[in-house]
Amino acid sequence: MTTPVALTIAGSDSSGGAGIQADLKTFAALGVYGASAITALTAQNTSGVSAIHLVPPEFLVAQIDAMFSDLAVGAVKIGMVTGLALIDAIVDALKRGSPRHVVLDPVMVASSGDRLLAADAVEAFRKKLIPLASLVTPNLPEAAALLSEPLASSAAAIERQGKRLLALGCPAVLIKGGHDEGSESVDYLVQAGGTIALAAPRIATKNTHGTGCSLSSAIAAELAKGAELETAVSNAKGFISAAIASADRFTVGHGHGPIHHFHRFY
After folding, report:
1. Residues acting as catalytic residues
2. I need a labelling partner for 46 at 20 to 30 A (CA). Which of 36, 97, 114, 244 fits?
3. Distance, CA of 136 to CA of 189 (rounded, Å)
4. CATH number at residue 190
5. Which pTM value belongs to this model?
6. Is 70 exceeded by the pLDDT of residue 182?
7. Is 264 among the domain residues?
8. How much is the pLDDT for 117?
9. How many CB atoms are closer than 10 A to CB 168?
């Protein structure tokens, strides 16, 4: 039996709740072997990001090439990329590696409000990375920022923005509704053939650090195991909802604490 493998290309979170650390925890929790290529080191905790140290583009390429030369990577998740040089490095490496599935999470702003994608890199993100993705997973503010449009405030507006993102060259977009209001958190999976609304009860907790990172990596894990896209998204959303519901079992830090990736085990 072949071991499913997923690769995360993202930033390191020194507090362990988001980024590479959250991705690897998610892969492990879902029975997938996780590999990583680090784009940046961050000094951060549950209250915010205090410093960012970028990995040289050539070293990022070396990490990615090393994975594709040895591991049977079933899916790739891309998170924090910060700037133009790293975007170009990832694009070049992925064209060589030719992964079947690429889940692109536009990590533009941290939960604490700290900007993580340089303003001058947004256009390159649109034109170079989005066309390589199988699925793009923006939240409502990120979808609006990628399109230079106001925040969508209705299901119809969210679907319209999803279709505009499809026009940038990706076959599927998952717009996450966690920043919306109401008793349910509704995510919208938009594809050329139509839109599916995936609802889950909204959970009252401040421990949501790493939620977006973990959802995109959960989808990548499911794709690496061979699931079809709609099943992968549905399974991943169920996993994240349970991880958020279990987050208050932890007392970690003084800000937005982490979700509980291993809620199934302890």
Report:
1. 176, 208, 210-213
2. 36
3. 10
4. 3.40.1190.20
5. 0.94
6. no
7. no
8. 74
9. 17
